[in-house]
Each structure stands twice: as structure tokens, then as C-alpha cells.
Amino acid sequence: VNLEVRRRHERLVVAALLVVTLLVFLPLADMLWMVLVHAVPAIGGAFAARAGELPHAILGTVALVTLALVVATPFGVLGGIYLAEFGRASPLGAFLRLTADLLAGAPSVALGYAGFLLLVLTFGWGFSVLAGGVALAAVVLPAILRSTEIALRRVPEPLREASRALGASETATLLRVTLPSAFSGVVTGVLLASALGLGETAPLLYTAGFSLTAPRALLRQPVGFLTYLVWHLGLAQGGRGAPGAFVAAFLLMAFLVLLSLIARRLTGRATLFAGR
Amino acid sequence: MLGAGRRRMDVVTRAITGLAAGSTFFVVLVTVVVLVAAAAPASAALAHALVRPLQATAPRLAVGVPGLLIGTLASAAIALVLATPAALGAAVMLAEYVPARLAGVASFLVEFLAGVPSVVYGLWGLVVVVPWLSRLAGGGTGTGLLASGLVLAVMVLPTLVVTVRDLLLATPVAMREGALALGSTHWEVVRRIALPWARPGIVAAVCLGFGRALGEAMVVVMVGGTSLGGMPRGLLGGFGTLAGSLVVALTDLVRAPRGVLGHTLATVAFLLLFLTVLVHVPARALVARQLRREAGGL
Predict the structure, then answer these.
(1) Which of the residues B27, B133, B280 would you substitute to probe the A interface, choosing the one with the greatest number of A C-beta atoms within 10 Å?
(2) Are B278 and B211 in contact (CB under 8 A)?
(3) How wide is the angle at C-alpha B110 spanned by C-alphas B193 and B85, nearest 5°?
(4) Average pLDDT for residues A7-21, to the nearest whole number?
(5) Which residues pair with B63 in a beta bridge?
(6) pLDDT digits over B51-108, tens only?
(7) How far is CA B265 from the centre of its chain?
(8) Secondary structure of chain A as H, E, C letters
(9) Is the distance from CB of A110 to CB of B215 less than 8 angstroms?
(10) What percent of chain A has pLDDT over 90?
């Protein structure tokens, strides 16, 4: 086939691809637009609502995500260190990597249900910040673990070799050389985990409960959170969505932008969710 | 002495980090044990439920696993059938044809959208997609499998686009240059070199997207997937999914957590975990193959 025909063919293909790309961006842009249009005029009113559900939900989300990070970060970072430094080629490392990936892909609602049975009922914690935070920790743990592992693996091997050649132990190499060079990557993993935790709904319904109250106690006190407001108020007014739902969605997105900006400052990478 | 102390320190470091790495296995193990223990009393009832809807505390709460399973697979399948070609097209466009600056802006947007919580997609489905489908169908509620599949498709799109774009951008330059030197047009390079090279990774990304769509509860529930067990009735009829049923039954369950409903939902949650494993096994094998390729260059 001659070049002219093939060039014409390419132009047709690119035109078709352009149409497809617009079809991809259209619904996504429409979603952002919907949230903005409904949320911006309603922000003041939503904060002034007498029930105070929005400030409560913000506090609840912050409490739940903070607790989840406090629980998950030590396990995730230390575990990531093991996978990157000691279990890189071992069968045990491969197995633990597999379980981390399975956990990352497990439907969060199933984890939430198990959390309900174990934490809320068997341990008697009730719907509470503690149960929600621990369940959320299980959901975000694999993200911290794998991000830490990947960050450490990016540290060039000669750096470790140089440290060992100077007589440093494995532990000293890790603490003085490897971890400091991977620090921004590790922190990005924690930021990614907060972004994931912020957006979870189903597992929290089963552990933090479903209420509009502010977090007051760690135990036996259901707590409101932003994603619950999106669902709860979204279904209000015959499925047309109460203004508060859009404001909550807007705030979730604002948190996400904030986390992305912090990650960008740290690593120079565009956003948290690149290349996942 | 110093050497011995150091070695002991290293053993401690290995032990502590190794235990921490075991935490994911611990979580998976505890989850499975808890769900299986809770599902066990339902196993006799499950045999029954697999044949016809199980009668729980009230007729409204009849949980039918087969109907939910079909609803789950159908809505996830619709989502991926719609999202895959669209994501491929957009990814090729972003990686190959769009000017760098515009591609940067578009990529930033897509990466941000990959992190937007699923309830927000659900809200969009509820407020925009459902009324639109209702108008399009000339009446009716607009809720159903089609709405669920559409919103799930939009939800998995950003992640798919980003993944495929990164795969295309990682195509070895030497292969591209070779094809260009032989007189290929840009599209022929994409079609014959970049896409085939990225194929295992693309299939893996589609598998993972499928896993995400079938485990998504909020979107499904918000666009009308609130049945607890009936077979899906057409694209615009009532339906339910495994993940969705766990949210739908929430309030009834809290009232009587140890009843038949609780046991059945534990079975449902276990089945969901099992489906995830099924989806992840081929995906992991393909990712491993892609990584070997990337390491090998060609």
C-alpha cells in the first residue's frame, strides 16, 4: 500500500481516537462540574446548618484517617523495609508481596464486614472511632507497604554497597543511608494511604457506624464522616441530592488536592495516583 | 565484640521488619477466619440458597446468592466492556499524539480523578446518569444494570487510562526507531509495536479494573442496585450485587447481627474475597511477564 493511503489512514485513526478521548473526558468533566456547580453556592449554608453535620463529618474523617495512619504506618513502613531490603528475592518475600496485593485488591466492604464481626461485635467496641480507624488501617496498609518497598528499591545499590564497605551494619546502612534517601517516597506512600482512607465509605459504615455526630469518645460512639454525608444526603430529596452532599464531595476533593500538592512538593511527581 | 553486637542488631532488625511485613498476611488470615466462622452456620442454608433465595428474617431480606453473583458479574462486565476501548483510545492519544503541554494537563486531571472517592462517582450516577437514562428510555426510573455499568465504567476509566499511558510511554525506544526506520507511520508504530508490547500489562490492568468494579458497593447501591437476591431483570430493571447487598442489608443486620441474615452476608463477603483472588491471579502473572520484558529491554 502506498504511503499516501497509509497517511490518510493514520489521519482517520487519529480523528477517531480524538472522538474517543473526548468521550472519556466528557463524563469525567461533567462529574467535576456537577460537584462544583452544586457545592460552591451551598458551602456557607452547609456549614451553618443547625445540626452541624458538616463540621462533625470533617472532624470524624480527620479522626478516622489519623487513627488509621497511626496504626498502619509502622506496620506498612517496617514491612516495606523487609520486602525491599531482606525479602527481595526470597520465597517468603514473594508470598508476603502476594498477600499485600490481594489485600490491596480485596473489596473494602468485605474487610469492613469482617471488621464489624470482630471489632464491633466480638471485641465489643461498638460502632466507634477505634473500630473504624482499625478497619481503615487494614484497608490502607498495603498502600503504605508497597509504596515504601518501591521507594526503597529505587535507592541505587552502590549506595548500600558503599555503606557496607565502610563497615556499617545492615541496620546502620538502613537507618543512615537507605531510609533517608527514600524518605520522600515513604512519606508519599503515607499521603496516598490518607487519600485512600479519606475516600472509603463501605468499610466505615460497618465499623464507624452511620451517624451525623462528632467524634467524642474512642469507643462505643458512632461517628459521622464525609463520605457518609455524600451517600446519606445524596439520597435525600428524592435522589436529587441535598446541597450538603455536594459540599461534602467538594471537601473530599479539596483534601485530595491538598494531599497531591504536598506529595508534589516532596517528590516533584504530578499526583499521588500516577502509575498505580 | 562490636561485630557480634552488630550482628545481633541486624537479626533484631530483620525480625521486626519481617513481623511487620507479615501484618498483611495476618489481616487476610483474620478476615478469612472471621468470615468463615460467621458463614459456617449458613453453610447448610447456603446449599439451599444456591438453589433458591434464602428466607431470612423477613421476605424483603431474602438473600439469593446466585442473583447477586450474576448482578455482580454483569455490572462489572458492562463497565469493563465500555471502559476498556475508551481507555485505550484516550491513553494512545495522551501518550502518542497530544502535544506535551496539553498531555500534562490532561494527565494531571486523569490522575486526580483516579483518586476521587467512589461515593462521588455514585453521587454523579444518582444525580446525572440515572435521570438521563430515564429520559433516554422514555420513562422508567433509569436505575438498573445499565446505570451501574456506566458509572462503574467512568469510575475505573482514570486508573485504566493512566496505567495504559504509562505502559505505552515505556515502550523501548529502539523498537520504535527500528519500525520508523523501516518506513512505518506513527500509527503503525503504535499499532504494531507499542500496543503489542504493552498487551500483557493492559490485560492485567483490565483484570484489576474488573476486580475493582465487582467489589464496589457504594456506586451500585446509589444507582439502584438494591435487590438482595432476585435475578437481574434486564438492563433497566432491579438488580443487586454481592458488594451492594452488604450495604443494603446494613440496618437490618445491625438489628440482628447473629441471625440467618448475618451468616448469609458473611458467605457473601467471603465469596467476594474469593472472586478477588480469582481476578488477581491472572493479573499478577501478566504483570510479572511485563516486568520481565521491561527488565530485558525487548
Answers:
(1) B27
(2) no
(3) 45
(4) 91
(5) B54
(6) 444 444 444 445 678 888 999 999 999 999 999 999 999 999 999 998 888 888 888 8
(7) 20
(8) CCHHHHHHHHHHHHHHHHHHHHHHHHHHHHHHHHHHHHHHHHHHHHHHCCCCHHHHHHHHHHHHHHHHHHHHHHHHHHHHHHHHHHCCCCHHHHHHHHHHHHHHHCCHHHHHHHHHHHHHHHCCCCCCHHHHHHHHHHHHHHHHHHHHHHHHHCCCHHHHHHHHHCCCCHHHHHHHHHHHHHHHHHHHHHHHHHHHHHCCCHHHHHHCCCCCCCCCCCCCCCCCCHHHHHHHHHCHHHHCCCHHHHHHHHHHHHHHHHHHHHHHHHHCCCCCCCCC
(9) yes
(10) 61
Secondary structure (3-state) at B226: strand
Q: Is B31 close to A3, i.e. CB distance below 8 A?
A: no
- To the nearest whole angstrom, how far is the Cα of B59 from the nearest Cα of chain A? 23
Cross-chain residue pair A114–B31, CB shorter than 8 Å: yes
Q: What is the pLDDT of residues A245-275, one digit of tens each?
A: 999 999 999 999 999 888 888 877 656 765 4
> What are the grid coordinates assigned to B292, written together?
520481565
Q: What is the largest CA-CA distance in chain A?
A: 76
Supply the mean pLDDT for chain A. Answer: 89
**Stretch among A57-71, A231-245, B51-65 having the lowest mean pLDDT:** B51-65
pLDDT for the residue numbered A44: 81
Which chain A residues are Cβ-neighbours of B110 within 8 angstroms? 28
Q: How far is B276 from chain A (nearest CA, A)?
A: 6
Interface test with B, best of A30, A109, A204 (most B CBs within 10 A): A109
- Identify any residues that bridge with B226 across adjacent strands, giving them in sequence order: B240
- Report which residue type is found at A77: V
- Tell me what pLDDT residue B61 has: 47
Predicted-complex ipTM score? 0.92
Question: How close B145 gets to chain A, by Cα (Å)?
Answer: 17
Q: What is the distance in angstroms between the Cα of B255 and the nearest Cα belonging to chain A?
A: 12
Residue B86 is nearest to which of A23, A199, A276, comparing CB atoms? A23
> For B26, which residue in chain A has the nearest alpha carbon?
A99
Task: Give me Rg for the CA atoms of chain A.
Answer: 23
Residue B290: pLDDT over 80 = no
B169-174 contacts, C-beta under 8 A, 24 or more apart: B169/B95, B170/B198, B170/B294, B171/B197, B171/B198, B172/B197, B172/B297, B172/B298, B174/B297, B174/B298
* pLDDT tens digits, one per residue of A102-135: 999 899 999 999 999 999 988 989 899 999 999 9
Q: Which residue has the cell 433497566?
A: B236
What are the residues whose beta carbons fall under 8 Å from the beta carbon of B8, sequence distance 6 or more? none
Most confident of A30-44, A262-276, B36-50, B284-298: A30-44
pTM for this predicted structure: 0.91
Minimum-distance CB partner of A86 among B17, B158, B187: B17
In chain B, whose CA is at the least distance from the CA of A109?
Answer: B243
